[in-house]
Automatic annotation (TrEMBL):
Phosphatidate phosphatase APP1 catalytic domain location: 148-300
InterPro entries referenced in this protein's UniProt entry, alphabetically: APP1_cat (IPR019236), Mg2+_PAP (IPR052935)
Entry superkingdom: Bacteria
Protein name, as recorded: Phosphatase
Lineage, opening ranks: Bacteria, Thermotogati, Deinococcota, Deinococci, Deinococcales
Provenance organism: Deinococcus malanensis
Length: 365
């Protein structure tokens, strides 16, 4: 039965609408719009906050005891969102106001130009729908001086997804939730070590770039928070069948370029996996922004021919002065990071302990 449901996805969103639309309408609420906000980011002088306005539906976050079928139904509800276009949106950050109107797909983008610079830290913006008296708050990451930034993929880099195996990936995404999906061993402590930097007291920003759809934003955010992986802005995309199938497009490279241009004086550490095209994307990013990539870590989740391809690519990057490490786990990445001065010497034992603890609880990955 699961495979029959998975095959229904081949028709894309239109096919899901046709198959599940009547059931979804039964779960929709009549009432005010559902305001969704996504973690903002920017500099002390300029900040961007994105979000979406949808029709409401009855929906509760997942629990560890939820059945696969309940998880599947919640994913269907997420993917079959009903967008509201032309809705005015007003945002406030400190004393600065920004305005926008939702697009055809319900998205909006608020751009704040700050007359007085903000300190480099986490801030909170307020977002309202004045025509509907709806409002919400959203975290904003303001980045100033830092040792470096971290740009990370999510699937098969932070979250065990098996994205290079289509049907196994779909089964993981569709039939699990934020409390049942698992991180790779020690990944949270590794990212905390990188965020703290070489002296252990830094505040380096972490950004997550993924081809996952914005519909899954809440699930991913709760996963990161639950698994104690450093929070940071998520750069996702609108969904279609190609999104679910994990096919390559320009989204990741454009998102990385956005980070590089937003923070022109900040070098970056790039983290991904060998399952899809992260190594090739990161190579292109390093070439477009020479001298800006401190290191590239690629989690080896494939082996065989794909491993050979990544090793060849590593040689090309080394000739250009960029260090790409193909690593089996978080501990190997941490060992290299310590040896090259990206993390504090005292961070390695913490990563080692976290890897051992996670493996004991959830298996060797």
């Amino acid at each position: 039965m699961k495979h029959a449901l998975l095959h229904a996805l081949q028709a894309g969103k239109g096919g899901l609408d046709e198959t599940f639309g009547p059931l979804v309408q039964h779960w929709r609420r009549a009432g005010p719009p559902d305001l969704r906000t996504y973690c903002g980011f920017g500099t002390p002088h300029a900040v961007t906050v994105k979000g979406r306005v949808l029709r409401q539906y009855d929906f509760q976050p997942g629990t560890p005891s939820d059945s696969a079928w309940l998880n599947f139904w919640r994913i269907i509800l997420r993917l079959l969102s009903r967008e509201l276009s032309g809705v005015p949106v007003v945002g406030y950050l400190k004393s600065t106001e920004a305005r926008a109107t939702t697009s055809r797909e319900g998205y909006f983008e608020l751009r704040f130009s700050l007359p007085e610079p903000l300190c480099a830290a986490w801030h909170t913006a307020q977002v309202t729908l004045p025509d509907h008296a709806e409002h919400g708050s959203v975290p904003v990451r303001v980045v100033g001086v830092a040792d470096f930034g971290i740009i990370s993929d999510l699937d098969d880099t932070v979250i065990r997804t098996r994205a290079h195996q289509l049907w196994q990936m779909l089964e993981t995404v569709l039939f699990e939730n934020s409390r049942t999906r698992l991180p790779f061993a020690g990944v949270g402590e590794l990212y905390h070590a990188l965020a703290r930097g070489p002296d252990g007291r830094g505040d380096n920003p972490v950004f997550y770039v993924s081809s996952s759809p914005w519909n899954l934003y809440g699930l991913i955010w709760r996963f990161l928070n639950k698994r104690e992986v450093p929070l940071g802005p998520l750069l996702l995309r609108d969904w279609n069948l190609q999104t679910l199938a994990g096919s390559h497009d320009t989204h990741k490279l454009e998102a990385i370029q956005q980070m590089m241009t937003t923070y022109p004086d900040l070098p970056f550490v790039l983290i991904g996996d060998s399952g899809q095209e992260d190594p090739e994307i990161y190579r292109e990013a390093a070439r477009r922004f020479p001298g800006r990539v401190r290191a590239i870590y690629i989690r080896n989740v494939t082996g065989g021919r794909r491993q050979t391809e990544v090793v060849k690519l590593r040689g090309e990057l080394e000739a250009e002065g960029v260090d790409l490490k193909l690593v089996p786990d978080s501990l190997s990445a941490a060992q290299h990071a310590q040896a090259t001065g990206l993390i504090a010497p005292g961070a390695l034992p913490k990563v080692t302990a976290a890897v051992e603890e996670d493996r004991a609880a959830h298996g060797r990955y």
